[in-house]
């Protein structure tokens, strides 16, 4: 079922306002607490559990990146407009935070020969809703930026390790396309050296925030998240806008859940990839590797 984000999302009646009232001075804390259950459901999605266990089909992961590029393109168009209008600053949306470009590079590396991968219906709906939101209630995009970017900087750094283990032919252990965000500024120099060889087997660029850490002088991903959250917390939003952001954060998680489920379903409907070819980018034997023992659900990160 599609969750429209232009209006009050499911399961939010009363809850969003109550959470915002409990944290009137701190927007990001209100969004954290107000979306906690939706966050947990996202982490427990079968897509995430299979990725963690190393059993997620490679095609499902490629579909996931395709969907992410669609929705990040819409979000970043809206945030760029807000920045150009002076309504948000570069601290909240620096160029090094953008994910559309890195996603495009990852998809080139993981290209599925002869089988174009198109965005799923839930991803197209989410992107369309984000573009509509940018026109009708643009400051509500802050909630989606919070959920997506802070998730990438928190649990995304754990997911990056799952991806490397699940698809070792695509992302060789010995060569990384960027330091883990948690490695801080010291790791950024090493990341720059690795990135000098574009043909090397790169870690997923989508999860690489070394340039963001280097630019901001942050020692760790946690420091980066703390600095980012100070920006929306300082904005002069009224109570109604804060309440809406809490509901929008919950809706963002619901949309991501639908996308994760669609990625698994679309991959299951496709014939298996031929394991005997590599993509034109020179990386990526297809297939998800040997099945691993299932792991119990685990939270990727306790908080943003």
* First-to-last CA distance: 27 Å
* Number of helical stretches of at least 4 residues: 13
Largest sheet: none
Strand content: under 5%
Q: Structural class, please?
A: mainly alpha
- Assembly state (oligomeric): single chain
Uncertain segments? 7-17, 19-23, 174-201, 277-302
- List how many beta strands DSSP finds: 0
Name the overall outline. Answer: globular
Polypeptide structure, described:
The structure is a single chain. 57% of the residues lie in helices and 0% in strands. The C terminus is likely disordered. The two termini are 27 Å apart. The chain contains 13 helices and no strands. With 304 residues, the chain is mainly α. Helix 5 runs parallel beside helix 7 and helix 8 packs antiparallel against helix 12.
Topology:
Elements: H1 15-22, H2 27-34, H3 36-43, H4 46-53, H5 58-84, H6 100-109, H7 121-136, H8 141-153, H9 155-166, H10 184-195, H11 210-216, H12 221-234, H13 239-268
